[in-house]
Amino acid sequence: MASLAKNVQTSTLPLPTSTPTTTGNGYVTDTHHRPDLFQPRFFFFYGMLSDPTTLAKVLKLRDRPALRPATIMEHGMKLWGEFPALLDGHPDTPIHGVAYEISSQEEEDRLVEYESDMYRKKGCVIEFRDGSKVPGVTFVWNADPRLLRDRSFDLKDWLLEQRDGCGDDLMGL
């Protein structure tokens, strides 16, 4: 999207935030100036990045990543053009997607660049199918909500459109 808009229990670890801080427990949430302090963490994906091929391209991985089906709460979803956008404040709405453990600051930076300034990182609780939960990070809408419309996103439909050539250079990948 950058081209468009130039198993630890949750009770024991604080959730990451988008500000460069270290929590009281020493959990580093932004390691740009100290990459040696980076701690792997799960990211939750709900749109195009929930496709392993797309995520591999964005992260510049050699192999397709092993994604885990997951759910988060506390968010609603609308669309920005064809792109899904999470909104805060919908406590009873589950958002289904996948989780992947990011292993370096470089990978996290690639995600931030892909998502552009239209989205911001936000801490969340990721629940896996087996019921286990981990603190994680997702991307939520960071722009004027009037740019969004009520519609749903279907990854299978999006992938079919990409395969059919409707968006070959859409993301600049």
Automatic annotation (TrEMBL):
Entries under InterPro entries matching the protein: AIG2-like, AIG2-like_dom, GGCT-like, GGCT-like_sf
Domain of life the protein comes from: Eukaryota
Domain Gamma-glutamylcyclotransferase AIG2-like: from-to ranges: 43-159
Pfam name, any one: GGACT
Region Disordered, annotated ranges: 1-26
Keywords: Transferase
Family statement: Belongs to the gamma-glutamylcyclotransferase family.
Name of the protein: Putative gamma-glutamylcyclotransferase
Natural source organism: Aspergillus sclerotioniger CBS 115572
